[in-house]
Task: inverse folding
């Protein structure tokens, strides 16, 4: 590694961290102005605002958008090098453009692997504290307005609610079926069902139970009965962002368990899992694009490069939002939807590299 490599790496990482600090300061100002009314109404302690919320929110925000910060940093410092004719001097000395990109890729690799480790293991732990603070002081109590709720709570065991009130832990038109090899051998139906927190049991009202054992059939009914169904009301009151608090190995197991239950949040969970890897690898793609765009000296100078860089950044964000919407709506698999922007922009990066100054 030569002096010019170390020079570019220092420029790259220095500008990257400077951009993060600068943008995070702006984000904090806007977030405080947006949250001020909640802070005044709910009166959280100042120590919790700083330690529980902002100390965990800022790493989450910085890491989630690190590829875009990388892109802005590459555009800025490379454009300055091109404006001062440093790029021309380096290429004129016999260094190929591909060789010039080596320190860029070394820096991008460092950022990518740090971001991967943060996404899969560190950020989920910090999100536990941040989201707990948001639940306590910034968000309204969870309200479930779903209807026709279906769940698989155990192998061969399926339940149904026509609707469920999370504030009262009270469900309407409840049924439970047990099915083996396509044959139903247990069926329970009740007009209502509520969770008794003192007994930690469900109580069903106006129930009807039918059991089939071979050629023998048993039917019973009654007004009210306690049951020990393996299902907790909190499972209907979960917010989708709970998966943000899980490290990836835990998240993989959770998704498998939710698939068994037939949860309709599976696409959201899959998107969260794929984003943890796809976003960091976008650093490589955006680094290639940024270096290709900003290394050419143009009449508009740094301003033109930064403007083009921001346009590409917003286009990337738009692509990511649209593609993940396809995944959460079940139109496309999560791994295709989340990785598609990287693939499209990788093709753009290869085109730009082919036309970069030689």
Result:
């Amino acid at each position: 590694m030569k002096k010019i490599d170390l020079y570019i790496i220092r420029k790259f990482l220095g500008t990257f961290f400077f951009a993060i600090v600068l943008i995070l300061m702006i984000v904090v100002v806007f977030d405080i102005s947006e949250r001020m009314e909640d802070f005044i109404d709910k009166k959280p302690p100042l120590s919790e605002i700083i330690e529980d919320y902002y100390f965990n929110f800022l790493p989450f925000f910085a890491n989630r958008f690190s590829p875009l910060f990388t892109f802005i940093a590459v555009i800025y410092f490379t454009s300055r090098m091109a404006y001062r004719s440093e790029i021309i001097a380096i290429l004129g000395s016999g260094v190929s453009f591909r060789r010039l990109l080596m320190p860029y890729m070394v820096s991008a690799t460092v950022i990518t692997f740090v971001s991967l480790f943060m996404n899969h293991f560190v950020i989920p732990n910090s999100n536990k504290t941040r989201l707990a603070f948001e639940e306590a002081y910034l968000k309204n109590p969870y309200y479930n307005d779903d209807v026709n709720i279906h769940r698989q709570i155990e192998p061969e065991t399926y339940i149904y609610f026509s609707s469920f009130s999370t504030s009262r832990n009270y469900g309407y038109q409840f049924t439970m079926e047990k099915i083996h090899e396509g044959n139903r051998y247990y069926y329970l139906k009740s007009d209502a069902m509520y969770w008794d927190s003192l007994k930690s049991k469900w109580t069903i009202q106006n129930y009807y139970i039918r059991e089939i054992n071979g050629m023998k059939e048993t039917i019973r009914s009654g007004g009210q009965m306690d049951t020990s169904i393996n299902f907790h009301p909190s499972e209907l009151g979960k917010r989708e962002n709970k998966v943000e608090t899980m490290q990836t190995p835990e998240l993989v197991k959770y998704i498998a368990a939710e698939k068994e239950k037939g949860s309709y949040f599976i696409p959201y969970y899959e998107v969260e899992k794929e984003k943890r890897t796809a976003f960091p690898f976008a650093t490589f793609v955006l680094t290639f694009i940024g270096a290709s765009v900003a290394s050419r000296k143009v009449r508009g100078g740094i301003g033109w490069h930064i403007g083009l860089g921001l346009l590409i950044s917003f286009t990337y964000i738009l692509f990511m939002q649209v593609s993940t919407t396809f995944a959460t709506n079940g139109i496309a698999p999560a791994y295709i939807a989340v990785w598609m922007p990287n693939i499209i922009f990788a093709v753009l990066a290869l085109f730009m590299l082919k036309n970069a100054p030689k």
Summary: Residues 15 and 73 are 5 Å apart (CA to CA).
